[in-house]
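FAQ: What does the model actually see?

It sees only this:
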Amino acid sequence: TDAEGMFLLPGLINTHTHLPMTMLRGFADDLPLHEWLTGHIFPAEARLVTPENVRIATRLAFIEMIKSGTTCFNDMYFFEDIIAEEAKNAGIRGVMGESMIDFATASFQTVDEGLARCEALIRKWQGDSIIHPSVCVHAPYTCSQATLQQSKQLADRYGTLLQIHVAETRQEVEDITARTGMPPAEYLHSIGLLDRNVIAAHCVWLNPKEIELLARTGTSIGHCPKSNLKLASGVADTYLKAGITVALGTDGTASNNTLDLVEEMRFAALLAKVVHYNPEAVKAQTALRMATINGAKALGLDTITGSIEIGKRADLILIHADASNMLPVYDEYSAIVYAMNSKNVRSSMVNGDWIMRNRIVCHVDKENTLEAIKQLSGQIRKM
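And it is asked to produce this:
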């Protein structure tokens, strides 16, 4: 492949998202998290989350992610067996698990049924070259101690990742503290849920003791700066000085509203500078590591992806370095983090196979997908 005038990079890794929520992009904006979630998103999902709608919305998500340089994602939602099938067809590397929660959902009615779906997903896909099944448990405010611990036990039994939302809002911290006598991360540690195979999404409101607990247990963080800003949840620190592996996630498009990890990388660098009043808080090279090798470490995939090394899988992207918005390039990291946009990503490869060539996504039918999502959104408007 002639890559003259290009940067060759490891593919970007999105460590926290809810892919089928592309069907709800812009559905309920400008609301605080708990009102947004309980008053709008949960009721909408009860009506809209069907196997076919999940399939359509997931294909749209893959088009957007691939075109913005993502080659690996970590998803938490419902009907994850369908998401795994679509990821395999699209050729994109994926970590995914059914979202365990203590009320009936579109894909399961009871916790036991949900755990069975999780286990079936793991048994079907474990050992696949690009599909990496996991276990997901929604949050300590939507799950009982029993659900949390059963989910962790399932992840440990199969040696998979466990994903969970933690300390996303002040209200969550207040509610969990009132119920358990401890803030969320401390409570999770007390019941055995902080560990090296755990990635905690958001972590906006950790206190110093909780930061130390995450660092000591090897728990990783999926940092979602844009979603946290849009929902006014707060600005999370990067926790890098504590020795925690911090990676990047977009969250779902109902709360971001994009799956563009290029933007997330830039926001992560800029916000850290403002939080610490220090332009060196997160340098460009650090932000790029958060979007690549840190993501691989957080997902337990750093032996196969996240960097360009002999022996690793070829999960690669080509970036148009000679584009007008990139030139002149005095420092490559600066150009990538502060100047690049998603349209500069020209081609993408996963596991040695092209999934996008010259901005054309190879294995997802874009026209049919866009038409299907337009029809779906028309139905949603009439509800």
